[in-house]
Amino acid sequence: MKLRGIDFGNVLGGSGVQGFFGEGYWYHRVTKHVGGSFDGITFVAKTATLEPQGGNLPLKDNFRPKGLLPRAIRVKFRKGSVLNAISLSNPGLEALLRAGEWQKRTEPFFISVMTISEKPDQEMKKMVELIERYRGGFKAPFGIQINVSCPNSDCSLYKLYQYLEDVLEIAGKLHVPLMVKFGLEPDPTDIIMDLEENPYCDALCMINSIPFGSSLVDWQEAWGSDVSPLAKYGGGSLSGKPLFPLAVEMVGVARSLGFTKPINLGGGILCPEDVDLAYYAGASSVYISSAAILRFWRVQKIVRQANSPILI
After folding, report:
1. Rounded to a whole number, what is the largest CA-CA distance in the chain?
2. What does R_g of the chain's alpha carbons equal in angstroms?
3. Beta strands in 154-284 (DSSP E)
């Protein structure tokens, strides 16, 4: 998938699957030896906000999680499902830029950001100013993934939709590829088609996790209960196998309506066969996220399938 002449490859990482800087998590030291390495996957940083957010994932001074088994994450391996209520835990965009780790990268990658204030356009303006201040040290080309979909945030996603064109125009001043990441609630269909003509939007990413309790999911089937184990954190949101048919359907709808720009499809891609279905639905590339936890031994198989000349 090329955006503005930059080759981001056929496989992206889900935002945060490798942490803020690509360092990954403790279990990756083991899983990388059994098919779970991130070789061939374009790095996408964990989503940053303008100001620091405590969220539900306490971080150490190096911005890595403090605990080995975060309380705001639950996994059901047999069902292929992950529930999380991390809620945008991050030290703020300036702290991440100041760390200098993104500047060291030598391959194209994405920085993921999300505006959460009552004035998303003004917040994005400050983010752009920060990135401009530090971008002189970057060795590799990068894009910005604009997250308008985190269901665990306290901001109004409806408001993000309303301000999206303004936010894109402001981010466009960076003159880097801009990819908008959607969930399914609120329904993004109408605004997706508006972005077909938007000169600042280069691509879409679909889909983010689904908030617990959503009518889009059969919760008994997906989780085995209608009651979230993360209720004290607001319920959390679901990733994994139940999302995949929803993602395929959404991409198919966008293509049938005439959306022609690249679409990065993810959400529940757990095996190579899922890549075939994603491409047939109209995806330009795929992203891997929950597979790194749920089916880590298939990660490199998925990468190879995504790069298969038969499918590309």
Report:
1. 51
2. 18
3. 178-182, 203-206, 210-211, 237-240, 263-265
Phi/psi for 117 (5° steps) reads -85, 180
- Between strands 203-206 and 6-7, the pairing is unpaired
Determine the Cα–Cα distance for residues 277 and 97; give it in Å rounded to an integer.
Answer: 37
Q: 231: which residues sit within 8 A by CB, 6+ positions away?
A: none
pTM of the model: 0.95
pLDDT band of residue 68 (cuts 50, 70, 90) is confident
Q: How many other C-beta atoms lie within 10 A of the C-beta of residue 92? A: 15
Instruction: Tell whether omega for the bond before 177 is within 30 degrees of 0, i.e. cis.
Output: no
Place of tokens 């990388």: 32
pLDDT tens digit sequence for 45-58: 999 999 999 989 88
Q: Which residues contact 141 (CB under 8 A, 6 or more apart)?
A: 6, 108, 176
pLDDT band at 310 (very low <50, low <70, confident <90, very high): low
CATH architecture of 2-306: Alpha-Beta Barrel (3.20)
Provide the residue type at 14 as one letter.
G
Number of neighbours of residue 158 by Cβ within 10 angstroms: 10
Could you tell me the residue ranges of all domains in the chain? 2-306
User: Which whole-number Å values give the CA distances from 283 to 88, 97, 111, 230, 255, in the listed order?
Assistant: 27, 31, 21, 32, 9
